[in-house]
Amino acid sequence: MRLQPGPDALEFAASVRELLERSCDARALRAAWDSADGRVPGLWKRLAAMGVTGLTIGEPFGGSGMDLTAALPVLVASGRAALPEPLVETLAAARMLERAGGAVAEAWLPRVAEGSVVLALGPGPSGVVSAAQHADLLLLADDAGSVFAMERDAVRVAPLPSVDTGVRLATVEWAASDAVVRLDAVDGENHDSADRWHADNPATRSPWRLGPISHHFRHPAAVM
Q1: What's the pLDDT at 208?
Q2: Which of 125, 115, 78 is CA-nearest to residue 94?
């Protein structure tokens, strides 16, 4: 079992870090935090061009097929830069979508890898979803633990205030009857594992942040 990233993974992370130093400096971050969508214009496409959005997606879907150990240096670099892009949310949801397989994975994962769409995942109807405003496809678990793939037009996103303007939070209203598909190959336990990976990942932390925001704010009542 490999416990440390290899030289290639470290070299790739160094290239990503250089990009973020150029494109995600203090001025760009302040502008993003003050903007309507909270993102750095054009940065997602540049990350996709480097292969970052397809980092953990399998090669048949246009990704690099890295495991999480190899991807970790990139995620740490994004957290250190306080990257205001939905990278961890997208990679966590893509990991679940690939595990589910089927037509929805075949349709969406190549688009994730090329950077043309964003993914998000979240708990039941009372939960708080990070990056829901940006997501084109959301993987949402109901109270019974079933997970459904929902397109953006089929849900209602209600933004919430947050102490960290680099992470956009929202509640999501949705109905299972409007889902693209139920992901029968995954369940609430798999979904919670992906959500915990997102919440506890080093990429959601930086010296400027209080910690993994989605972990602290699980319910609207907790949002300040």
Answers
A1: 32
A2: 115
Residue that the structure tokens 């190959």 belong to: 185
pLDDT band at 164 (very low <50, low <70, confident <90, very high): confident
d(CA 25, CA 49): 19
- The strand ranges marked E within the chain are 119-122, 129-130, 137-141, 147-151, 156-160, 169-173, 181-182
| Strands laid side by side in the 129-130 sheet | 129-130, 169-173, 156-160
Indicate the pLDDT class of residue 187, thresholds 50, 70 and 90: low
Give every CB contact of residue 113 below 8 A, 6+ residues apart in sequence. Answer: 48, 51, 53, 54, 57, 61, 62, 63
CATH topology of domain 7-222: Butyryl-Coa Dehydrogenase, subunit A; domain 1 (1.10.540)
